[in-house]
Amino acid sequence: MRFARKPKNMVKLRKAQKRLHRIAFKIYQDLVKQLGPIPMEYMKEFDVLYRVLTQKRDDTNKVYSVHEPEVLCISKGKEHKPYEFGNKSSFAYTRGSGIIVGAMAVVGNAYDGHT
Asked: Positive or negative CA dihedral for 8, 14, 20, 23?
């Protein structure tokens, strides 16, 4: 919906979002009920779907991407782009030639000064 975030359309937006959430949760419940015990190879996917359907706005460890559940929300502190989604990584390179001599993936959302 193009003008969904306009103040006069917020009621319609919330109503549509609640309806979509209700439908998705019912489909999830029906699928779990029909499968019985969930096979182990699909347990991770079902866990991610359940976390997406039950998370609240103020929860920690939210799922921001169904396809990449380990993605984090990184606060940038910029006015034009306050948040970024992904993972942090750190690179060490030589001063003169710029050759990368080391790389490290940072677990969690660590402060930039500590990495």
From this structure: negative
- Name residues whose C-beta falls within 8 Å of residue 38's C-beta, 6 or more positions apart in sequence: 32, 46
Give the span between the Cα atoms of 49 and 36, in whole angstroms: 17
Per-residue pLDDT at 85 = 84
At 19-32, the pLDDT tens digits run 999 999 999 999 99
H-run or E-run covering 85: strand 83-86
For 84, phi then psi, to 5°, come to -140, 150
Neighbouring CB atoms inside 10 A of 49's CB total 19
Cβ(63)–Cβ(53) below 8 Å: no
Structure tokens at 24: 């998705």
